[in-house]
Amino acid sequence: MGLGTVGQGVLRILRDHGEALEHRSGVRFEIVRIFDRSFREKGDVIRDIPASDNMEDVLGDPSIDIVAELLGGIEPAYTVVTRALAAGKDVVTANKALLARHGNELFELSHQHSCEIAFEAAVAAALPVIKNLRRGLIANEIEALYGILNGTCNFIITRMQEDGLDYAAALREAQVRGFAEADPSFDVGGKDAAQKLAIISALAFDTRINEDAVLTEGIEHIRLVDHQIAADLKCVIRLLAVARRDPLQMRVHPVLIHEDHVLAHVRDERNAVFFATSNSGPQLLMGLGAGARPTAAAVVSDLVFLARENPETPEYWISGTKDPVIHHEYAYRFYLRFQTYDRPGVMADLARILAEENISIASVSQKEGPEPVNVVVITHTTPEVPLRTAIKRIDALDTILAPTVAMPMELDL
Fold first, then answer.
1. CB 3.0–4.6 Å: which of 22, 52, 174, 386 could bond 180 by disulfide?
2. For residues 328 and 231, which has the higher predicted lDDT (pLDDT)?
């Protein structure tokens, strides 16, 4: 269902590697039918496979065992998946938006009809995050997870860090190379990573999926100077998806991490997920987390998984019954950058407001130069709520020339 770039990649793998797949798995796949709204324009790809733009040709065909939903978005994907499950068909999906919004309902429906939903491709494409959680790490309690889950953001951040590009130039390069959409807001605003984190966290912490519980901040406000200052601190900036247990915390935000940490070496469009586990120790998965070929490979992996699965015992992917809740009481060391006039009294105003909100300063630095100047404050560990109050007060000062940049420092990963 859906013959876009990912769908065509799946078709290509099944055609070109079908014999190898059968040899490795004992499973032979037959593509019974293709649904695509513009199938008439894709005859050179479809060739001799029956195709139509009528969903009923797929959903009403009793010979079909598995439906691969590669449409994206909420509708008609939601209708396709619910109808397929109700008809007793297993589903493979690469649709993180659908699962983030309707996953709890869809997994419950799959159990009612003794069907399966496989969704490795929806989270981190080629990275086997989902199966690792339910296979290799099932005997563990996941204490925390840290992920770089959006290739667009990671590419932009890396090019700023390594090539000295400003944000706009790095974004343009990402768009030219196909790593960013014409409207990149969903990616650079952190929403894509938040949906993925909501799904992974549900499996890791035995809760229901709740994307609204993920506090989300993007990378649009980060400037080249922040990367330069981070380097002076022996740190790098990454858009990090963070989830911790007891109490469950889920957030996506740009952070400073030490330059020696393994996640600091995840570059360009690559993704990674780092698990802290109770019995197996630290675990890292790294690779291509997006793109047509990695996503298609994950879809085919799920097809093999479903074909070999016992249809009488569908997997318990979402086993929790409680919804995660939003927690605002985070405490971090913070990196703060204020853009201001180089005038007497500015430092005193900053220090006074921070002190009035009980925020302790660990260090202050300012490089000489023409106005405006950047004043950088590193705080001691402080709760985030009073810090945001202080920033709001500071940004209202006449001497502050741009919104304050504030990033947590995850130095104890």
1. 174
2. 231
CA 81/CA 76 separation, integer angstroms:
9
- Catalytic annotation present for 322: no
pLDDT at 412 over 90: no
Helices (H) and strands (E) in the chain, counts: 15, 16
Q: Do 162 and 282 lie in a common domain?
A: yes
Q: Indicate whether 76 and 114 sit together in one domain.
A: yes
**Span 319-372, pLDDT tens digits:** 778 888 777 778 999 999 999 998 889 999 999 999 999 999 999 998 877 889
358 and 388 share one domain: yes
Write down which residue in 308, 343, 369 finishes a domain: 308
Q: What phi-psi label fits residue 217: left (phi over 0), alpha (psi between -120 and 50 degrees) or beta?
A: beta
Whole-angstrom Cα distance, residue 55 to residue 60?
8
Q: Which residue has the tokens 């974004």?
A: 171
Residue 174: both structure tokens together: 């990402």
- Clarify whether residues 188 and 231 are in a common domain: yes
pLDDT in tens, 249-303: 899 999 999 999 999 999 999 999 999 999 999 999 999 877 889 999 999 999 9
- pLDDT (mean) for 46-52: 96
Residue 135's pLDDT is what? 87
- Indicate if 26 and 68 belong to the same structural domain: yes
Which residue out of 42, 96, 196, 234 is catalytically annotated? 196
Give me the CATH number covering residue 357.
3.30.70.260
- Tell me the C-alpha distance between 68 and 149, whole Å: 23
d(CA 43, CA 28): 24
In sequence order, the 6+-apart residues with CB closer than 8 A to the CB of 387 are 334, 357, 359, 379, 406
User: Percent of the chain at pLDDT above 90?
Assistant: 85
Domain co-membership, 89 together with 165: no
Beta bridge partners of 406: 336
**Does 249 lie in the same domain as 174?**
yes
CATH number of the structural domain spanning residue 225: 3.30.360.10
Q: pLDDT digits over 57-98, tens only?
A: 999 999 999 999 999 999 999 999 999 999 999 999 999 999
Sequence-distant (≥ 6) Cβ neighbours of residue 113 within 8 angstroms = 85, 86, 88
Q: Is residue 323 part of a domain?
A: no
Domain hosting residue 11, numbered range: 5-118+294-308
